[in-house]
Amino acid sequence: MFPGSADRSRFRTLSRLAALLWAGLLLSSVVSVQADETKLPPFSKASVPPAPDYESAAGWLDRPEDPDRFGVDIIWIYPTVLFDNSAWLMDITRKDLVAAAAETVTTEARIFSGQANLYAPFYRQMNLAGFNLPEKERDALVAYGENDVSRALRYYMQHHNKGRPFILAAHSQGSYVLTQLLVDHWGKLGIEDQLIAGYVVGWSITEEDLRDNPAIEICEEAHQTGCFISYNSVAPGKQKDSPVILPGAIVVNPLTWTREDTLASAELNRGSTFFNQDDTYQTYPGFASAQIADGGLAVVAKDPKRLDVPFFPSGVYHGYDYPLFFENIMTNAAQRIQAYLAKKK
């Protein structure tokens, strides 16, 4: 599944992409130093950390203790957690980075708990600073993480899946890597009919992607299966300030699960969930509305100051893509699971 890609020409050059994945700072206090490509050590093959071994438990951020508890699996590809000046690629043995990645499992991926067996592979993601590099160097770095995720998914299908339907879910750099793999390989793998849905959030699936691979289907309704969801949250009018809203971005509204551009009122929001550093959280029904506009998901929140974060322009809610619609996504995952299982009876 997902063999390594030879064609790296699809990487988008975005002048603002250096701001890309600071969402990890919203979820973790472990890494707090902004990366600077001029201060990182020179990259060489000798500095590349060992690849994850997916035959070993050490290759997985999370795997289910009881893999047969649910009849459905979820594969989670975590966002960027490497922001400091230590290395160009994530060393999956570094405890602070492991802790930061694990925090995304207990926050964002918590949406899917209680519904599916969760598999989260480690991958050697690129340091945030890599987005400032010349394209050739940048592509070479991203390829390590992409190849890792490809191998992890292939190993999962061969050794863990056992024919179960599955959900793909990711955020930020995880969604970028997953999108690259989908565009290159989806429709050619022989496992497409096992997909319940793909939540590829915090990155753009674009019209260009669909032209490059028509096998990728975008979700149009809440009970649809075998399709993908993508959106990027911003305040109205802030779409051009978001580095992850690409030209031709396709948006699914997580309050209606359609691509209609009419306003979905806050009354449709079952609950936005905000996590604290002490592992507690609060859920607020009706916290935010959502409307598809200009390639983004325009969000009007009851307390927008709560959504402003360092390193992103004010009004770019990238770190809250999942929390803003937490209860709606949780309910929708259940809807799609039930719809899939009903079709297979």
Task: Give structural notes.
By secondary structure, the chain is α/β, with parallel strands linked by helices. The chain has one domain. The protein is 23% helix and 13% strand. It is built from six helices and eleven strands. The chain has helices spanning 24-27, 95-106, 135-159, 173-185, 207-212, 326-344, and strands at 60-62, 73-77, 117-121, 166-171, 195-201, 227-229, 233-234, 272-275, 281-284, 291-293, 296-298. Strands 1-3-2-4-5-6 form a six-stranded mixed beta sheet, sandwiched between helices. It has a three-stranded mixed beta sheet with strand order 7-11-10, with no helix packed on it. Strand 5 (195-201), helix 5 (207-212) and strand 6 (227-229) form a beta-alpha-beta unit. Helix 3 packs across helix 4 (173-185). The longest helix has 25 residues, at 135-159. The chain is globular, with a radius of gyration of 19 Å. The two termini are 26 Å apart.
Layout of helices and strands, plus pairs?
Layout: H1 24-27, E1 60-62, E2 73-77, H2 95-106, E3 117-121, H3 135-159, E4 166-171, H4 173-185, E5 195-201, H5 207-212, E6 227-229, E7 233-234, E8 272-275, E9 281-284, E10 291-293, E11 296-298, H6 326-344
Parallel strand pairs: 2-3, 2-4, 4-5, 5-6, 7-11
Antiparallel strand pairs: 1-3, 8-9, 10-11
Helix pairs in contact: 3-4
